[in-house]
């Protein structure tokens, strides 16, 4: 007997609107920028649309699978012309930067002063902001969207409201509640759902670092966003190999990476070249686990550190390698915006257009 829904609902974690049938929402799954728990479902959606293949970026070999660190800001880093929008969004996060843009200069500086106090308290509390404290703050603000997504999911999964999410809670909220022995008896492609459930449980066990079968908020974040956690790297690689390694030899061959066809469009040829020249690092004609890891979780520049160094360099007037509250407030318009800085940017933009 099923006591929650008439069918499993893994679309809850794929970002597909619950009011739409799963089959009608492939673009919602393909549009995600971050890894999601059930890649088998993503591949199933892609295969259903195989006759009208999208661009290579949307396929199982493309950017839908590869995690690249999002830029700190989409704005141009153009301090030379007095445009500090990049710095504002990097330091505050994009949504909070918009809030600061509506403040008066006095309100903006007052709120910046409180942020400086928070940065120092989160570090060593010595009254100065070090490079490490500044970097930690920027990294924290850039992770806000992940924390928000986990908070949005928390009430769905924490059904008994005890402040933790057990594996059974997550399983039932995602797939529906089944009596033992009746799992997925009422849905088509039951074997696929069983595989998804097995994979999700394995991922949950890795995310559950203390092994108590109850996820804290941090552990649930690791489950939902494994690409952000070093201890989840192996599970991301394993899931990718399982999706692509059709002959189960532990490697991804080029014809598993790209299914051969009678006529191959130009993007398929390009992907073959990418496989040969950039992804097959040891040139043995196949990808092992380490090469898959380099592909789907490529090394990234420490963007928060780069921005922290930039802000420190531009604001450290006495060149002692740390920032006082006075130094930050003395360069406040680089850290945060206000109605006044927006007005200055508008003047600059208008002048450039003349």
Structural summary, described in words:
The chain is mainly alpha-helical and 354 residues long. The protein has a domain at 84-251 and 288-348. The chain contains 19 helices and four strands. It has helices at residues 11-14, 26-30, 39-48, 85-92, 94-100, 105-122, 131-142, 144-157, 167-175, 190-207, 217-224, 233-244, 254-257, 266-279, 289-296, 303-315, 325-330, 332-335, 339-353; strands at 165-166, 214-215, 252-253, 286-287. The strands form two sheets. The chain has a two-stranded antiparallel sheet. The longest helix is centred in the N-terminal third of the chain and has 18 residues, at 105-122. The relative contact order is 0.15. InterPro entries: EF-hand-dom_pair, EF_Hand_1_Ca_BS, EF_hand_dom. It is found in: Endoplasmic reticulum lumen. This is Reticulocalbin-3. Interacts with PCSK6 (immature form including the propeptide); probably involved in the maturation and the secretion of PCSK6.
């Amino acid at each position: 007997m099923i006591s929650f829904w008439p069918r499993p609902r893994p679309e809850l974690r794929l970002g597909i609107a619950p009011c739409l049938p799963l089959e009608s929402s492939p673009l919602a799954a393909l549009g995600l920028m971050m890894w999601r728990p059930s890649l088998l479902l993503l591949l199933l959606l892609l295969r259903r649309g195989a006759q009208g293949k999208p661009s290579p970026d949307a396929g199982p070999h493309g950017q839908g699978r590869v995690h690249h660190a999002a830029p700190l800001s989409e704005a141009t880093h153009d301090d030379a012309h007095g445009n500090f929008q990049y710095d504002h969004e990097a330091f505050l996060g994009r949504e909070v930067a918009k809030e600061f843009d509506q403040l008066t200069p006095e309100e903006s500086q007052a709120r910046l002063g409180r942020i400086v106090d928070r940065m120092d308290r989160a570090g060593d509390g010595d009254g100065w902001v070090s490079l490490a404290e500044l970097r930690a703050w920027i990294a924290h603000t850039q992770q806000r969207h992940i924390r928000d997504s986990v908070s949005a999911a928390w009430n769905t999964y924490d059904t008994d409201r005890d402040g933790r999410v057990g594996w059974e809670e997550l399983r039932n909220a995602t797939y529906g509640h089944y009596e033992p022995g009746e799992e997925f008896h009422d849905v088509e492609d039951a074997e696929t759902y069983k595989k998804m459930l097995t994979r999700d449980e394995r991922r949950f066990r890795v995310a559950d670092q203390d092994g108590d079968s109850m996820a804290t908020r941090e552990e649930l974040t690791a489950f939902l966003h494994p690409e952000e956690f070093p201890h989840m790297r192996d599970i991301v690689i394993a899931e990718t190999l399982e999706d692509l390694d059709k002959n189960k030899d532990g490697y991804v061959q080029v014809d598993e990476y790209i299914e051969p066809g009678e006529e191959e469009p130009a993007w398929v040829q390009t992907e073959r070249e990418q496989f040969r020249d950039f992804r097959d690092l040891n040139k043995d004609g196949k990808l092992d686990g380490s090469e898959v890891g380099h592909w789907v979780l490529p090394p990234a520049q420490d963007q928060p550190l780069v921005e922290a160094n930039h802000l420190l360099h531009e604001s450290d007037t006495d060149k002692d390698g740390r920032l006082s509250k006075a130094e930050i407030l003395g360069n406040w318009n680089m850290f945060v915006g206000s109605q006044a800085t927006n007005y200055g940017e508008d003047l600059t933009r208008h002048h450039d257009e003349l």
